[in-house]
Amino acid sequence: ITVATCSLNQWALDFEGNLKRILESIRIAKAKGAKLRVGPELEISGYGCYDHFLESDTYLHSWEVLAEILKSEEARDMILDIGMPVMHKTVTYNCRVILCNGKIELIRPKIFLANDGNYRELRFFTPWVSKKVEKHYLPRMIQSITGQFTVPFGDTVVSTLDTCIGCETCEELFTPQSPHISMGLDGVEVFTNSSGSHHELRKLDTRIDLIKAATAKVGGIYLYANQQGCDGDRLYYDGCAMIVMNGNVIAQGSQFSLRDVEVVTATVDLEDVRSFRARCASRGIQATHTEAYERQDVNFSLSHPHTDGDLSVVPDKPRPPFYHTPEEEIALGPACWMWDYLRRSKTAGYFLPLSGGIDSCATAVIVASMCRLVVKEAAAGNEQVIEDARRLAGQGDTKYIPTDPTEFAGQIFYTCYMGTSNSSDETRQRAKRLAGVIGSYHTDLNMDTVVTAIHGLFSLVTGKTPQYRIHGGSNTENLALQNIQARLRMLLAYLFAQLLPWCRSKEGGLLVLGSANVDESLRGYLTKYDCSSADINPIGAISKNDLKGFIAYAQKEFKMDILGEFLDATPTAELEPITEDYVQSDEVDMGMSYSELSQYGTLRKVDRCGPFSMFYKLVHEWGQHLRPTEVAAKVKRFFFYYSINRHKMTTITPSYHAEGYSPDDNRFDLRPFLYNASWKWQFSRIDQAADNLEHSKDFGTASRSA
Predict the structure, then answer these.
(1) pLDDT per residue over 484-517, tens digit each?
(2) For the chain, which end, N or C, has fewer CB atoms within 10 Å of the first or last residue's CB respectively?
(3) Where does residue 108 rank: exposed (0-12), middle (13-18), buried (19+ CB within 10 A)?
(4) Which of 134, 91, 135, 98 is nearest to 113 (CA)?
(5) Residues designated catalytic
């Protein structure tokens, strides 16, 4: 049999576009000889509708789209596994709808809902009960097409003339008691999984390992479909549709792509599943004791009558799975997300305050990577990319095709160095040279006159003149003077983003890019409403260490020698005056290193550690080179600054989600933003534990040995 799965770049509530992409995927699958096509989770409505799933309109329009699919010629002579929301007995469910030859064979609601991290499915949907099946009364618009009044609704499987198919949806693969176990024991040979799974650095191997393990244990053919692209918020769904059989990857799609439709097919032999299962006697014993699923009989076969006699038909062979390095993931994931965001927002391009530091440098290089991907897809004849590129470049009525990434960057990417008397010539020149290499439309300004005007206004009103710390001012004065510069940069960024295209006789405004990394956001090392406040931030959930690795990769891969200068430079905000014996340093200002921040972030979010448990983990990890009281001081310092700055996360710029310890307050990391920053009870317990450890016999022995 030949089977097909796909990755679709669906968009929340874009019913017309979503229908177009679904039909295109069916056409491609059919042209490749497939008789089973599986699509992503909630592909009709788009996964990221969120509270729109609470509106009846979403369900009405989903049925209208399904009606168009049922009437289409594409839906003939195929089994289609389609994702959409369904209201059953006035309760909302996340469902798979199985179609065959213009009929609905069953509606399978999701049993285990994703409700952690970025997911809140229990807010919109209700989980179904395992192996429960009821009648669903179809809307009249569907009745008039299919001639059906009711269809099965529930956890049931499909029996064709030659095999048995069972559905699994996204989260159900990740649960301890996944449905594929009991389905496989009950004779299901083909498993479909329709997902809305987002990209996170170093996550893909978890997904692939689970699919391989599923079929390695119970045998079978596993078709994994996923959404791909920006659905309308912080997540990038990273595709990678795949077909796995008996624990081996047979076919794998791309993880990052500018293609709106990607179909993955494979030809497999059902007898290989049956012989694989026959190897294990204990499987047969467990199968005998497994409660049977209700089966929906479908008078249809996945095999073609001529296949067995056609000697040119050869089953696809296993292949090793493909993984990108983390550096490649940073180069590709945010770039694809930014392209979707840019073209769908109907704006004219991106504007980036380019400081000459590594963070804004990384953001600029990601834009450069996006331009490289656009040129590559245009050369491959991707009509959608060409159409979008023409509009963005202001060449909509011409035959313009982007052929050079730097030329295309000059059309849609604007950078600006916003210097003051505290800025160094080194950062100014680095920013200028980087802009030249990338090809951005670059401006360079000195905003001292604006800063001086604000200083003068304050002094005029209050009669007081604040001073920098090196000029005798207090910490309060010093911080306020730094924040004035930072916030003025945000105001100027939005002014230039609105008017620079106009200066070039172009239509539209620009999206402002932020460039605060995840570690600085976690620590709160940023000014509220400064250049960290932007429209979107491609690096806001990426650590400083990962960004350095990415820049080192891009220096070689993109042939940008200038990037070596950014790697060698000391990270600095350049908000205080530079003297012979003082240059501002980010890590000195923060009182902790970026490596430490990454470790704090992982322990706080991923490992769910409060102050006390974080101390106990770190005192064992760092105990060979730090005393317990020193570890205690570091942990307390982190939690103090984290808690007094947590309020900044309520206004943080929407960032590409790439890291498991992102402090994004919007949906991912739900915590108070007004803390008792003294942490009196917790810190006293840490101090007591540290003191006990230092006075213990084991600590003295360990210290002498170290």
Answers:
(1) 998 999 999 999 999 999 999 999 999 999 999 9
(2) C
(3) buried
(4) 91
(5) 41, 110, 170, 355
Classify residue 542 by its DSSP letter: S
Q: At what angle do helices 358-379 and 544-557 cross, to 10 degrees?
A: 50
pLDDT tier at 704, thresholds 50, 70, 90: very low
593-615 per-position pLDDT tens digit: 889 999 999 999 999 999 999 99
Amino acid symbol at 698: D
The whole-model pTM stands at: 0.93
* Bridge partners (DSSP) listed for residue 441: 414
Tokens of 542: 């990426």
CA distance 108 to 455: 65
Q: How much of the chain is helix, strand and coil, in % rounded to 5?
A: 45, 15, 35
Tokens of 640: 């103090």
What angle do helix axes 15-31 and 56-71 make, rounded to 10 degrees? Answer: 30
Structure-token pair, residue 338: 């930014």
Dump strand ranges (E) for 178-217.
190-195
Q: Which of helix, strand or coil describes residue 292?
A: coil
Given strand 441-446, what is the order of strands in its sheet? Answer: 441-446, 413-419, 350-353, 511-512
Q: Which of 414, 572, 437, 395 is nearest to 493 (CA)?
A: 414
Does the structure show a pLDDT above 60 at 706? no
183 Cβ contact partners less than 8 Å away, ≥ 6 residues apart: 157, 166, 168, 191, 293
Burial 203-217 (b: 16+ CB within 10 A, else e): ebeebbeebbebbee
Q: Do the beta carbons of residue 623 and residue 613 sit within 8 Å? A: no
Tokens of 252: 């794998």
Tokens of 255: 């993880």
Segment holding 544, helix H or strand E: helix 544-557
Instruction: Please give the Cα distance from 93 to 491 (Å, whole number).
Output: 45
Closest CA to 564 of 553, 555, 573, 575: 555
> Two tokens at 365?
């290089």
* Token duo for residue 519: 């570690």
CA proximity to 371, closest of 563, 517, 514, 558: 558
Quote the CA–CA distance of 29 and 47 in Å, as a whole number.
Answer: 22
State mean pLDDT over 448-474: 94
For residue 318, what are its two tokens?
């296993």
Supply the DSSP string of 649-670, one letter for each residue. Answer: GGGPPPB----TT---TTTTS-
